[in-house]
Amino acid sequence: MAAPETEDQNCTDHSFKSKTLTENDAGKKSPNKNHKDKNNKQNKDNVTRVVVVALTPDRRRETWNKKVEFLLAVVGFAVDLGNVWRFPYICYQNGGGAFLIPYTIMLIFGGLPLFYMELALGQFHRSGCLTIWKRICPALKGVGYAICLIDIYMGMYYNTIIGWALYYLIASFQSELPWTKCTNDWNTIFCRPVTELLPNVTASSPAREFFEREVLEQYKSDGLNRMGPIKPALALCVFAVFILVYFSLWKGVRSTGKAVWITALAPYVVLIILLGRGVSLPGASEGIRYYLTPDWDKLYSSKVWIDAASQIFFSLGPGFGTLLALSSYNKFNNNCYRDAILTSTINCLTSFLAGFVIFSVLGYMAHVQHKSVEEVGLEGPGLVFIVYPEAIATMSGSVFWSIIFFLMLITLGLDSTFGGLEAMITALCDEYPKVLGRHRETFVAFLLFGIYICALPTTTYGGVYLVNMLNIYGPGLAILFVVFVEAAGVCWIYGTDNFARDIEKMIGHRPGLFWRICWKYISPVFILIIFVFSLLSHEQMLGTEYAYPEWSLQVGYVLTASSIMCIPIYIVYKFAITPGNLLQRWKMIWQAEHSSDNSALTYCGGTEV
Question: Which amino acid positions bind Na(+), per UniProt (predicted)?
Fold first, then answer.
């Protein structure tokens, strides 16, 4: 029987030497004892194989060149477009300054413990969201497959939004911004400059018509029932985004570590510049007042607390597998506790800073149009693709402000898409090291090309409706349930005490009582409550501007179920392939295959299922 196939050159050397030693020893036996010699040789071969498995070193894993590259990558993933277009609006809508109270509470008791948990898990087990489960709870490996599927759905629409920003950036390189006047081919008779818009009058601004009729051309579609053909210019912009993503991911942490110096730091430079410009505009103080004025009565509303919990969860981003993947490239004794506190604090402060940038400009627009701030503001893509460009068009030096603003949006988006895709790439390369891990560059190219093909429907004339639907039903609902199962698997099945002991091995001290209580009781319940309330209000999340047909909602349910069902399907599969009687199988699939106490025994090559 041949020696087991190995993972690297060290494994091959060990196997060769041990096997040769056995054969030489067997050659010294008396020829008159052939039968016994043959049996002895087989026995020695078996012993040799056991020794090879036990003593072979694990395949060397890459690490970050510098600690700061890891921190930038985590901050870049957590700080995304939602920090700019969602947090300021949610804050204003839910009581202004008063909203910071439930937001901070949800951060401390819900978001931060989950954030810390994922960083510690990835760093200790040094593996992605698939391989890690055999060391925690083999039956829940379906969580990893669910995360990979969710990351694919996210890649299908999130890169399209970055493509819109790239379209705006290219259009900004003109002597005059194309959404300044109503004299373009795409404008309608209802177009009016922003300074001439009157309340209760049917009219639209040049910026709105540029977005809807030039960038998206959504008037050429009939919604999701007839989306129309692909728009070549948008498809090219999205393709360019995928090219940027590829060359940032193809070499693993070596290429990502270099890219994050630009994509993570550039948004802060631009935010500070835009803040300086925004607060100098007339009406800015009124906008900031709207942003911060506390409405204490809102704290009695359960919706405010649910919005705070949802915002902090989606802002920090646990559950997407990204934190696991990024921290798995850390050195074993890295202080992940300090990293979790630092990066989550930076993320929340960035959201708060973005609120000043946005609301100073909204106050200015309200001043120009003689409206109140609430009549000007929009949530989501409309804020950054309509309202803010409108404001920029009225400023002196509008071309410069437009270029840096959309550069900021692109870099914010790229960091997050790096993280989501790296989570899936790391997971699959760890799970299939011989097939995929050794050919990472080729694998990443095929993967990104496949996701790009799947994303092409979002570049059609009706693609904006598909983007919104994918956002809600792709990761939006499913990720909440997946994170609940992940937290339950780690804290309830693997055990909070075991997890705390693992952390102690890395950083030298045991997590305090507060963290252990949060992991065991508060955080799983925190996620479950968000999931239930989101499930009850998912149709409201689609908005009211477009009535989604009934069939599209059913497709949305299928999208959500497709990732969630990975979990029970894998439990059934694992139960079926595990040897033993029914009770033995059931107990075995919930027990870690490699305990942290025996982490010195490593296995070379092969994929476990």
Answer: 76, 78-79, 83, 315, 347, 412, 415-416
Could you give the C-alpha distances from 543 to 378, 531, 540, 546, in angstroms and in order? 12, 19, 6, 7
Do residues 107 and 345 lie in contact, with contact meaning Cβ atoms separated by under 8 Å?
no
Tokens coding 597: 């106490």
Taking the CB of residue 181, how many other CB atoms lie within 10 A of it?
13
241 annotated binding-site participant: no
Residue 92 is encoded by which pair of tokens? 């204003």
412 labeled binding residue: yes
* CA dihedral (317, 294, 269, 241) positive or negative: positive
Share of the chain above pLDDT 90, in %: 54
> Which DSSP letter does residue 459 get?
G
| Sign, Cα dihedral of 329, 333, 337, 339 | negative
Is 485 labelled as part of a ligand binding site? no
Q: Are the C-beta atoms of 552 and 226 separated by less than 8 Å? A: no
Angle (nearest 5°) at CA 38 between 34 and 43? 150
- In degrees and rounded to multiples of 5, residue 333 shows phi and psi of -95, 15
User: How many whole angstroms separate alpha carbon 389 and alpha carbon 382?
Assistant: 10
415 annotated as belonging to a binding site for a ligand? yes
User: Is 234 known to sit in a ligand binding site?
Assistant: no
Please tell me the pTM assigned to this model.
Answer: 0.84
Nearest partner of 91 among 254, 380, 304, 374, judged by Cα: 304
Closest by CA to 382, choosing from 55, 10, 84, 24, is 84
Confidence of residue 378 (pLDDT cuts 50, 70, 90): low
Sign of CA dihedral 439, 442, 448, 454: negative
523 belongs to an annotated ligand binding site:
no
Q: What is the pLDDT of residues 590-599, one digit of tens each?
A: 998 854 443 4
295 is in an annotated binding site: no
Helices (H), 293-335: 302-316, 322-327
On whether 416 is known to bind a ligand per the annotation, the reply is yes
**Tens of pLDDT, residues 127-164:** 999 999 999 999 999 999 999 999 999 999 999 999 99
pLDDT tens by residue, 265-281: 999 999 999 999 999 99
361 appears as a binding residue in the annotation? no
Q: Let me know: does 440 contact 94? Beta carbons within 8 Å.
A: no
Over the range 222-235, which residues count as b (16 or more CB within 10 Å of their CB) and which as e? ebbeebeebbebbb
Tell me the C-alpha distance between 153 and 79, whole Å: 20
Q: Closest Cα partner for 516 from 102, 120, 78?
A: 120
